[in-house]
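Sanity check

After download, print the first record. It should look like this:
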Amino acid sequence: MILLFLYRILFILLMPLGAVVFLWRLMKGKEDKKRWRERFGVPGCARPDGKLIWMHGASVGECLSMLPLIQRLLELDENLHIMVTSGTTSSAELMAKRLPERAFHHYLPVDVWGATSRLIRHFKPQAVYWFESEFWPTTLLAFKSAKIPLILLNGRISDRSFKRWQKYPSVIKTMLSCFALTLGQSEEDRRRLEVLGALDTACVGNIKCAAKGSPFKPEELADLLNKIGNRPCWCGASTHHNEEEQMADVALNLKKDFPNLLTISVPRHPTRADEIQKTFESKGLKVARRSKGEEITNEVDVYLADTIGEMGLLYQLTPIVFVGGSLINFGGQNMLEPMYLSRVVMVGPYTHNFRAFMKTGKEQNALIEVQDKNELEQKIRFYLQNPNEQLAISQRANQMAVSEMAVLDRLYDLLKQRSFV
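Expected structure tokens:
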């Protein structure tokens, strides 16, 4: 408790410096110029009538993972409204496009008691669903003080976080005590949360498995497919720094066998697009940028999809998808959506964020793990040259993805049983 007290005091003392940093972020476009007051606990809208559930996700990935649950809850209760909070402008923009009627976005305020308490008093939520592993001590304690049921959904504790939190047992135990129910993303996450001090733990599975794929306009898909024609094609999705350079080497080598090969690059962070374009062009590959409206011509080697929220469209363009964050020691990104869409899904050796999912995927031969860029190149070449093998593994991928989607039913039943919906 002493460390948490010092944290809160230090946070308050650093507020003047924080204001300068915030102003700099505002000028750089990293904060919302129209809604910046929300970050300080000023309500951005009136409270809707009826029940209200507050859901929080750190950024785009967490916000996307909550969409199926939001849809299910709103369908089952016509008096319910849902407020989604996050801390990034990209997630706010995406939620503005994707949230259904009776759901709205609000920025999470900075981790100061007064800011969070002001928002709690204004919106008076019946429950708060907190997604994954972004723990803000003062905010969590404010919910506990207000006696609002706080539920951790899809809780994830990485190897590094587990070791770090074990050095500060009283801090993590105090924060976890704020949760009325703690759901681990996997059984291992549930166990780690229990070891760290969570009181009521369970595991219903990975909620990200409930996503069926992001929406898109059929006419837009038809236009892109027409431009690609019968060119062999593969995609590197949700890639991180250093992975695009490996993609470029793979593309160059594959072009020896497939001269008209098209590589689709979908970086995890589109703000890196200039850097990524230079990486591909330094290898002699011609790049077209989606954000700039550049067309896929016959001369284009790489289609750089530097946009947000279009994975459902982009996955439809190619039969083979490499999911990034896995050729570097990051832990991998979510590979379920391309599997649901019957793609041949490949990942690198670093997928510790999805251990249980990977175990099942490999047992069912529903996805492919490669050790490095050379093996990635070999596997892409094999599946481009063997359409029957491509069809077989893509069907297994779809079957596994569909079976994993039952997580939403298990989650809703548990929340209903505990009276948290």
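If your output differs, re-run the checksum step. Summary of this record's structure: Residues 252 and 283 are 8 Å apart (CA to CA).
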